[in-house]
Amino acid sequence: MSLAKKTGLLIGDILILYVSLALTLLIRYGFFELSDRFKTHFWPFSLIFAIWLLIFYLAELYHHQTMRNAAVLFKALAIAVFLAGVVSVIVFYLFGQFFELTPKTNLLLFAFIFLVLNYLWRAAIIKFLKRNILGITVIGDSPLMTETIKYLKENPQTGYETTEWLKEPENIDLKTVIKTIRENESQLVVIQPHFTKNFANLNIAYKLLPLGVGIVNFWDFYETIFEKAPLEELEEGWFVENVATRRPYYDALKRLLDLVLSFTIGIILLPLTMILAIIIKASSSGPLLYRQERIGKGGKLFTIYKFRTMHNDNRGPLWTEENDNRITAVGKLLRFAHLDEIPQLWNILKGDISFTGPRPERKELAEQYQKFPYYEIRHIVKPGLTGWAQINYKASASLEEAYEKLRYDIFYVKNRSFFLDLKIILKTIKYVFFSH
């Protein structure tokens, strides 16, 4: 879903939140008290609304997959409203004296009204998206193009529909392309980059501009739809043009945030860390911490720290399997709650890793992954405690799955920003608390 569509949904949600509050107060207190009651409730509920919107984001209510049909939408929305309502009750219970409000009945009525209005709003958006689909003409052919066109056909809520696919660009002339665009009323032309390497074809693409249609590189379009890199088709020149090795202001501020947050979180978690240390030592023999060499920025080796979750094992670099018998009973709990990662706050303080970035790999596995095209690009940036690949794809248990995760890592390296980092952190929070 495009940023404009997500912004539209967000604005609609905000308006419906306040309309639902006004309707709640109107029903409860009548028209003549509405103005005064709304003023009293405005600021406390504005804080609550911020929490609601965060929960909506974590519940993927701004993702096109949630908008694919009314049933999926209602289920996701109902769960999100329920969770938001529970959090609201807790907030008012803990801080009600500051708000001078304990709106139990109002909150219940508000949640019901909002659920109904927001569902109707989003259901209308689904119909609108399906009726106002952007027609695209695709020029070129490749397995990834086939995958993309199939996905668009199965997911009309993306807002795109392939109206024509010109698979043999070597036989294409300008008249054919213009005729195709006009007959199908295409509003966007997606071009395979290899097509424009030929000067004559580049001239065809240029002469499409006066038609008023949008022209987009297929590799960029693929990233927009799947939020990962089309590795099979990329060339070295693409990396030279699109991947920045340094972003001084971003890098400096990100390091400052890493230092402040890792130190603060470390202090907060110190009591829990001490308790976990005692439990680990008492439950099984072996060291408290698990130390392992990982590949960091620039391919440099560093030692990563975790709480030990396995029995001592000398079988070398193996992928962890489901129900792996090497994992201790306490280790299963630590992994389930991701508490084994706490010692990596020290790695963040040292500057070995950041909070966000591609996960650092073991040296032995990294050597296997070197066969992947452009694998070394992921080492341009500092590795992370969590990453874009981790929140979008399962833990790799094979070379094929590791390659798929590399697509997401390359996407992150190319598009890294504070907004993307925040998105990763929020989705990681969702994964930690709701994935199980």
Number of helices: 17
Category from helices, strands and their pairing: alpha/beta
Mean pLDDT: 88
Order of helices and strands: HHHHEHEHEHEHHHHEEHHEHEHHH
Work out the helicity level.
55-70%
Distance between the termini: 26 Å
Give the biggest sheet. Answer: 4 strands, parallel
Number of domains: 3
The percent range for strand residues is 5-15%
Shape: flat
Can you count the beta strands?
8
Please compute the radius of gyration using only Cα atoms.
26 Å
Unreliable segments of 5+ consecutive residues? none
The spatial strand order of the largest sheet comes to 2-1-3-4
What is the topological layout?
Blueprint: H1 3-29, H2 31-58, H3 70-99, H4 104-131, E1 134-139, H5 143-154, E2 160-166, H6 174-184, E3 188-191, H7 199-207, E4 214-217, H8 218-226, H9 236-242, H10 248-268, H11 270-283, E5 289-295, E6 301-307, H12 329-337, H13 344-350, E7 354-356, H14 363-369, E8 384-386, H15 388-392, H16 399-415, H17 418-434
Parallel strand pairs: 1-2, 1-3, 3-4, 7-8
Antiparallel strand pairs: 5-6
